[in-house]
Design brief:
It is a single chain. The protein is α+β, with helices and mostly antiparallel strands. The chain folds into 2 domains: 193 residues, FAD/NAD(P)-binding domain (3-Layer(bba) Sandwich), CATH 3.50.50; 182 residues, D-Amino Acid Oxidase, subunit A, domain 2 (D-Amino Acid Oxidase, Chain A, domain 2, 2-Layer Sandwich). Helix content is 27%, strand content 26%. Strands 1, 2, 8, 9, 10, 11, 17 and 18 form an 8-stranded mixed beta sheet that branches. Strands 5-6-4-13-14-15-12-16 form an 8-stranded mixed beta sheet, with helices on both faces. Strands 3-7 form a two-stranded antiparallel ribbon. α1 runs parallel beside α6, α1 packs parallel to α10 and α2 crosses α10. The longest helix has 19 residues.
């Protein structure tokens, strides 16, 4: 594909799930526009999208996150209802809590219920009946539990419209829809830098000067052949790499990366672990829900089709932020010792079935954190539209974010996005000029 000198209406940088959603909704609502999607990898959804835990939930403390996730989930469910396999498994989310956590989160739970989020509450007795494998009480003589400071379980909160999906299938769905509408994709091509030019060029070396009004007019690409391509609008949806392309021209990318790790525990040959996968008390699939334990955000996800668990743990303190991550995620490695010393003791403490379990596979990826309030953002700046800040929940909000980017493109930051289900959302709420959101408290 020849790009030298080419002019597009819109260039979208980043073919992860967010960039794909943006490209699709922009093309769908602006069919006459010539739109190009660019990514430095060889296929869609190959960076952090592919390395994600690929869960979805609408159980958030922030109303904005509830709306962004709930409408996106509804869209994915509708796509699946129409015969497109997205690998959706509505297993539910089970937030297991100690007494202090239950008390602190009660107001959040009541707000969710008031906003129509489907939630079921369990007291300890109900939870022990529904999930008898879960250890809910620790004896004073249990020295290991004392060392780990494992608290007795007081109850749980169960998110009903929650579960998992296949990130590759969802990425491929958006790609196919975008291409069918006439969109173009350029793989194996790095968006090296942005082209900044004055609105009224004078042909003087060193332009633009501070007294000239300037805007982004395209990108310099580096790939199979170096080129410069121009566009009326450039959309940046590069996740943890937003800073890499924005900071050189003096625009804050508003993201910081943190490494997150996942470990696979096979249940093959272990009857106790295999039995734990199946549970008829929470969902129609009769599978263990996604379980978040009270200690350190440690969680486990059952994959019955593979007879295995994915397990991980939140480690904010002592896990450094990364402002400009390595573009090669192969250099982002999981740490065997992290499982052994951090995840495993907690898993074994609450579920004896994990005794002596070791990972059969492990990998790592990067969360794109908006450290201001852990809620995504979309803003405009001098010919740019920038989207990001998923804070670990990009997949579950991607469809809504794509619709917001399209609304801003057509109507500006004072516009209103029509999210799936005809839910109207004022897009300036998640911009930075008139941001009006509450900090998210339930971040995994």
């Amino acid at each position: 594909m020849t790009t030298e000198g080419k002019v597009y209406d819109i260039i979208v940088i980043g073919a992860g799930i967010l960039g794909l959603s943006c490209a699709f909704h922009l093309k769908r609502n602006n069919p006459g526009k010539n739109i190009l999607l660019v990514d430095r990898l060889s296929d869609v959804g190959q960076a952090n999208t592919a390395r994600s835990n690929a869960m979805f939930r609408n159980t958030f403390t922030s109303w904005d996150n509830q709306v962004l996730s709930d409408t996106s989930i509804n869209f994915y469910l509708e796509v699946a209802k129409n015969g497109i396999d997205l690998g959706i498994r509505k297993t539910g989310y089970l937030w297991v809590m100690d007494e202090r956590q239950l008390s602190l989160n009660e107001r959040h739970v009541q707000k969710m219920i008031g906003n129509g989020i489907e939630i079921k509450k369990y007291d300890r007795a109900d939870l022990e009946s529904a999930l008898p494998s879960l250890r809910t009480r620790f004896q004073d003589s249990d020295q290991e539990a004392k060392l780990l400071k494992l608290e007795n379980v007081a109850g749980a909160v169960f998110g009903i419209k929650c579960g998992r999906l296949d990130p590759d299938k969802l990425s491929k769905y958006y790609e196919q829809q975008f291409l069918t509408l006439g969109g173009k994709i350029l793989f194996n091509t790095n968006a090296k830098s942005l082209l900044l030019e004055p609105n009224e060029p004078l042909g003087i070396e060193g332009e633009p000067f501070v007294w000239q009004e300037s805007r982004i007019v395209g990108v310099r690409l580096e790939g199979a052949a170096q080129s410069e391509i121009r566009a009326d609008t450039v959309v940046i949806a590069t996740g943890v790499w937003n800073n890499e392309i924005l900071e050189p021209i003096g625009i804050d990318g508003h993201v910081k990366a943190k490494k997150r790790q996942l470990f696979t525990i096979s249940a093959r040959g272990n009857k106790h672990l295999s039995d734990l996968i199946y549970n008829s008390n929470f969902n129609d699939l009769k599978v263990l829900p996604y379980v978040i334990l009270p200690k350190s955000g440690c969680y486990l996800k059952a994959l019955e089709e593979n007879n295995e668990f994915w397990v991980a743990c939140e480690d904010d303190l002592n896990r450094p932020f990364i402002n400009t991550p390595d573009p090669n995620l192969e250099n982002c490695k999981a740490e065997p010792s992290y499982y052994e010393h951090n995840v495993y003791p907690i898993l074994k403490g609450y579920f004896e079935e994990f005794e002596n379990s070791k990972p059969s596979q492990m990998w790592a990826g990067l969360y794109s954190y908006n450290t201001l309030d852990s809620i995504p953002f979309v803003f405009t700046e001098s010919g740019l539209i920038v989207a990001g800040g998923g804070s670990g929940s990009g997949i579950m909000k991607a469809d809504a974010m794509g619709r917001i980017v399209d609304a801003i493109y057509r109507d500006g930051e004072k516009g209103e996005a029509a999210l799936y289900g005809n839910v109207h959302y004022p897009v300036e709420k998640i911009g930075f000029r008139s941001r009006a959101v509450q900090r998210e408290e339930w971040v995994i």
